[in-house]
Amino acid sequence: MNFQTGNVICSTNGKLSGGEFYNCDENSIQKFVGIYSGVSIESKTRRDEVFVSKGVIEVNVSEEIVEGDYLTTGLDGKAKKANSSTFIIGVAIEQSRLGKVKVALDQRYLVIK
User: Fold this and answer.
1) What's the pTM?
2) Tell me: the pLDDT tens digits for 80-96?
3) Nearest alpha carbon to residue 35 among 108, 109, 103, 110
4) How far, in Å, CA of 29 to CA of 95, rounded?
5) What would the pLDDT profile of 54-67 be if each residue is shown by its tens digit?
6) Separation CA 59–CA 101 (nearest Å)
7) Phi and psi (nearest 5°) for 45?
8) Is 5 exposed, middle or buried (0-12, 13-18, 19+ CB in 10 A)?
């Protein structure tokens, strides 16, 4: 696993157990399990400490994001702005800076009109 803190992480089975983890891409939103927290994975480490799926966390982004933008999976484990109806990972709570943005995680399907 080659994850950077803040990467958007998916699993082959879409769960925290029993699958292999990888950096999400544009087509893997339904396999999203969380944001990599930087905690190393060891046999006794709880997966929800490693891959955060609730609360507020800094996420790597591939484009400029402004407060209120809804985010979905992009390329190479980075999030991008959701421009059409899709599953989202959450909403930006501030403007992005240096390729990162704070996100209130809230995975759900969103209809964008």
Assistant:
1) 0.91
2) 999 999 999 999 999 99
3) 103
4) 22
5) 999 999 999 999 99
6) 5
7) -80, 130
8) middle
Give dist(CA 9, CA 29) in Å, integer. Answer: 9
20/16 Cα distance (integer angstroms): 9
Burial 81-102 (b: 16+ CB within 10 A, else e): bbeeebebbbbbeeebeeebbb
Return the H-helix or E-strand segment holding 49.
helix 47-50
3-state helix, strand, coil in the chain (%, to 5): 5, 40, 50
Percentage of the chain beyond pLDDT 70 is 98
User: Residue with structure tokens 């925290």?
Assistant: 16
